[in-house]
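Worked example (supplementary).
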Amino acid sequence: MKKIAMLGTGLIGTFYTMTLMGMRNKDVVCVVAASREESARKFANQWNIPIWTSSIEKAINDPETDVVVIGLPNHLHKDAVLLAAKAGKPVLCTKPLGRNAREGLEMLEAVEKAGVFAGYLEDLVYTPKTIKALATVKAGALGKVLWARSRETHPGPHSDWFWNKELSGGGAIVDMGCHCVEIARNFIGKDIRPVEVICWADTQVHPINAEDSAVGLVRYENGAIGQFEVSWTFRGGMDLRDEVSGTEGTIWLNHWLRTGFEMFTSVGQGGYVAEKAEGDTGWLFPVGDEVHALGYAHMFQDMLDSLDAQKDPMETFYDGYVVNAIVDACYKSALSKKWEPVELSVWRGTENNETYLKAIDYDSQHQLIKEEKMPDGKTKIILKDKSTGEISQIFKD
Amino acid sequence: MKKIAMLGTGLIGTFYTMTLMGMRNKDVVCVVAASREESARKFANQWNIPIWTSSIEKAINDPETDVVVIGLPNHLHKDAVLLAAKAGKPVLCTKPLGRNAREGLEMLEAVEKAGVFAGYLEDLVYTPKTIKALATVKAGALGKVLWARSRETHPGPHSDWFWNKELSGGGAIVDMGCHCVEIARNFIGKDIRPVEVICWADTQVHPINAEDSAVGLVRYENGAIGQFEVSWTFRGGMDLRDEVSGTEGTIWLNHWLRTGFEMFTSVGQGGYVAEKAEGDTGWLFPVGDEVHALGYAHMFQDMLDSLDAQKDPMETFYDGYVVNAIVDACYKSALSKKWEPVELSVWRGTENNETYLKAIDYDSQHQLIKEEKMPDGKTKIILKDKSTGEISQIFKD
Amino acid sequence: MKKIAMLGTGLIGTFYTMTLMGMRNKDVVCVVAASREESARKFANQWNIPIWTSSIEKAINDPETDVVVIGLPNHLHKDAVLLAAKAGKPVLCTKPLGRNAREGLEMLEAVEKAGVFAGYLEDLVYTPKTIKALATVKAGALGKVLWARSRETHPGPHSDWFWNKELSGGGAIVDMGCHCVEIARNFIGKDIRPVEVICWADTQVHPINAEDSAVGLVRYENGAIGQFEVSWTFRGGMDLRDEVSGTEGTIWLNHWLRTGFEMFTSVGQGGYVAEKAEGDTGWLFPVGDEVHALGYAHMFQDMLDSLDAQKDPMETFYDGYVVNAIVDACYKSALSKKWEPVELSVWRGTENNETYLKAIDYDSQHQLIKEEKMPDGKTKIILKDKSTGEISQIFKD
Amino acid sequence: MKKIAMLGTGLIGTFYTMTLMGMRNKDVVCVVAASREESARKFANQWNIPIWTSSIEKAINDPETDVVVIGLPNHLHKDAVLLAAKAGKPVLCTKPLGRNAREGLEMLEAVEKAGVFAGYLEDLVYTPKTIKALATVKAGALGKVLWARSRETHPGPHSDWFWNKELSGGGAIVDMGCHCVEIARNFIGKDIRPVEVICWADTQVHPINAEDSAVGLVRYENGAIGQFEVSWTFRGGMDLRDEVSGTEGTIWLNHWLRTGFEMFTSVGQGGYVAEKAEGDTGWLFPVGDEVHALGYAHMFQDMLDSLDAQKDPMETFYDGYVVNAIVDACYKSALSKKWEPVELSVWRGTENNETYLKAIDYDSQHQLIKEEKMPDGKTKIILKDKSTGEISQIFKD
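After joint prediction of all chains, the assembly is encoded as:
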């Protein structure tokens, strides 16, 4: 059982608290902080939390607080982490870790120096589907991962500070690309170095300074590609999908709009349908248990179990820092209009990962390029002559 | 926090324990009973349960036991419930409640007489999708429910006793139809009396005495129809779907094979893919978190929260008894080849529910039958003359 | 090349003409008849048809007419067929053949006596998906077919006469059940005798005399079940699905609402979205090529190619008659509330089809009931003792 | 009715001939040419084509030939087109038009100089889904198109010459990217200038010189992005999807793997399942009518109807040239690792297309950034101060 101080009472603080207090959980949120005391008090009442405050510092230092959970706007992450480190308390910080790699690195160094347990609350890596998919990939079902696409798009975030580049650190890339980048990184392998990125970003619709749409490619040292697509201009709800291609298989995950819950209503139901849903009549696609589908439940389980066991959680501050570094490179590339290196002053993975190239001998003279069953029932085999490089084809019944 | 005695260590005992001990739950399984002591011991070791026994009675009466959970084969439910009632302990019993309504009623009367808390572990009513769908229906999004289809089919159950009619009480109907019947009943309304049933049942494939396939219709007093389809002959995994039609809307739930997790592998991954999956290469459809998707997590939450609050859970022994009575009528109908009444010696719902018939006045002379937008862009309106009954059509641009 | 007289200018006449005149077809509609001359003239103008008339007889007997296509309301089918037979001209009649088996038989006998080519325009058996699925089933991919469900539901038909029981012969069963019954019959095998039916039918919503909802089961001599579900009360568009289960496989076809075309629009597009679509904003599910998806294109190809080749088309008047007989039995069962025999005074299939029961020897002592891979990776095998009938289980790694 | 000379007897020649001779078409293939006379003769026999030859020139100049259809490997397109132009005969050329823009331009100029009708056989723009989707977009249902993703991936092409960079002009980009680029261009608007591209390309798996995987972004003058993803390394069949995002809506098209035909078979069926299918047991996803789903039927209809009407088809040689120019820029970008301009020496669209930016006044002081319904039922509104640029939020019930 852990006693938690929740910093922040917005949508993310609500989802986190809903998760931690939901079901038959043994953990409790016993302190809550919000910038406005009134918000903290209301939230405390709603969730039956005994202590509320408008001081982040007080919340962290409250003797009741075992673990600090940061659900604050991006520009407040760093200071809150530093305070927790100073207080010597375990700290879990929502995504993105910093607004940039410099902030991320400072936070990483602070917790490591202080020796406090730290977890990076990257929930989408913890959805039950992603966890099972990652296990499947580790078990070899996809062979070598070649490409991982992660997509998060919706009509735009729900709070003002997201739209303010100074407070958030950017636009859709730092807000949602941080998820996508880390999802792809998990599938490709966290020990493989992300080498360089190319990124398109634009403000297509909203009257803001930050990008509301972006697509990026992250090239890993072993030749694998992590592709992200983010947008605050998408219409139809929240599109949250991952696709992974490997030499031996494929995985497609749909976390939100097509999960086996389909509904038509001519009259609506009043109220909330699902996060980022648009409209409440016609065909709708609700999600059964949102905090579970978004990974919050398994994320906190891993975090608190890891804390109990005194081992690293699946997502650490180091991961948050790597993500920040990749995002930084994306912003650079969007401006320079060329591939930009990912600058990692600290690299803890392996080096010199080789690319994959399949070279199966068909016979002593030829390599096999491909086999395909044709409409007439025959099998066509494409071969490459090992000495001349010439490509030819033969048929088998 | 509750201390639980788990009776039974088969698949259902495993799923229940996995749920109760999973995540950051505050409850614990502290006693386990299996018919063979060796099984109990192994299970206790695996799940770190301090007390094991081959005696159901001992498990129930163990002073550590707060709550009795029955995950035993069907023929052992009644005696276990009677023992728990005698011991004055809260009891949760897996589905079906009895092998027939006579057993179900005896169990209902026993717990009520003893005044113990009792819950009917009908998990599929508690899947996150079903819970949200039921709330949606209650909020009026579907208007009046007219028809609810629930389907559960797979290649057959995993333990020998299921296939033995004497031990289980029947075949696919009692095994899976009990789920489907209660799902439909929840959508249509538990206070609406199920009046009569028609049922086809057959042994199509397996060399057994019980039915391995069945389809049934349950007619409710208000004219709504609950349709179930069950089979132990289905190929391709476990088909677990619900469909609900109302006057204003439609709900389709897919709990297993199409939930947004799609995967192709040419090599497989070794080991388990998903419950009742067939094969481990090609296109596969895993489920992220099986115990969650099957409703176990929310079911135990409701049961134990209700116990804490001293109120009835969503699914009670009375519900189990009604389901038993409906299933009994199905077996009768399968033999008699005609509609058979549902015999409920105890009825706790409302009486004299009227059927629905829409009679919207189009004008003083006509009722509206329907409107449709045609390919040429016009709207066709079908009307019924209120005095003559004559049907006519007009066009609007 | 065939010159066609189109009888009827309603939705079905439009779809048929669109199909016959669409693409780069060599056939032409050169005569059109409608009850009101004005409608015929308009239709002729629209489709560039040289001859129009309000007389069915004139259209049939016009020297330009090679082939008669009947797209008329149900009560006019019989007379039109008799006129075509009398004229000695090939005739294609839309579904249902008659309003009942008596009419159907009279039409069958008329064309056979006259020796004219006759085709039953049961389009849904000809959808490209159904054609391929039927070929797949014939190739053995599903083993023996055990069950076929066909479902057609929408918010109600578009023309007044459908809602008039005298003109149409009934309600949703005769209108749409005729499709479903024939689809299931094709999957199960046309040479297998449909023995008996059980059917529920009700007027749940619309103020009419006929049924607006029904579910029926048709039992075939070999134990297979054809299940149909029809409704004029469905909300959300047109639900057109088939599901087939065999001993070795499964087929699921979705012809309308989920075919890989998904669209969200907040503003709509003006005009027609898809047949029976409700609303034109929000999530919509259009169909690319409706006449193709509904089977019209392949239906006319088969009909006219068969006429050219002087061989029976896939769907004959005999098939239409069998469908009428099954539908008649359904209406009888809905009233009698018990299984009713399918009365076929003419039976052209095989006799004494045996039911299927799998009895695979596991060893000399046991039959195999089932194998399943369990979560712990072991395989559980359920066996039946051949002499005692006792059921047991063993585990294999 | 048109008499067609088919050049090429490989998979594409087969699909084309199947389409032109399929259904009740009035057109006929009356001449066929293949590089080996034996192949031409066999093909002629199979399809009942009266004239066969190993000379492309003879086929074109045969007096029977009304229209020349080029279904040859890429390196033979140009010469065949020049011969057709010289012969003054209408010519339809398969995709890509040239191996590069230089070839494409030469072909374009040749047919224009000769004044012959010319069509670019870009079938995937003609799938029934794409045609309807394009009409929907033109009708305004998506508002302004911001992004269009087109993806075509499969395990690799079926003929040797595809894998030979000299003969084909490249790898997966020139083979499949040409489809994707033109699909996106149709959605975004053919009159909008494609300005620049960024492209990643790699040889990830197969032992060849060309790229087997690529992702590219094409930026249009109005700010819209066309994104393509191509691969010859995909596992699981043929992934053929388009996604379009506009300011008011979204379209998702799945042309192959998820079109409403799902099938499980434990035994297979022998033979061909679908183009590029892998394996023939387990869950399979066949396509009902492949040539229709791939757009061949509607493509030839448009081509031959346009020829009859003496008007431009939907896809012209100019379109083929633009696609070649975009593909050329992609190859350049893949090497230079930066955005490269699309060089179009001939531009026939509009100039100076402005980008889209939404600036809706909320009140005199503020612009509306976004509205969202929150879980608590309230609506949150994000605003931007028109003078200060400050971003704020307010709540409405």
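Two points are worth noting when inspecting this output. The interface with chain B takes residues 235-237, 264-266, 278-279, 281-285 of chain D (CB under 8 Å). Chain D has a mean pLDDT of 95.
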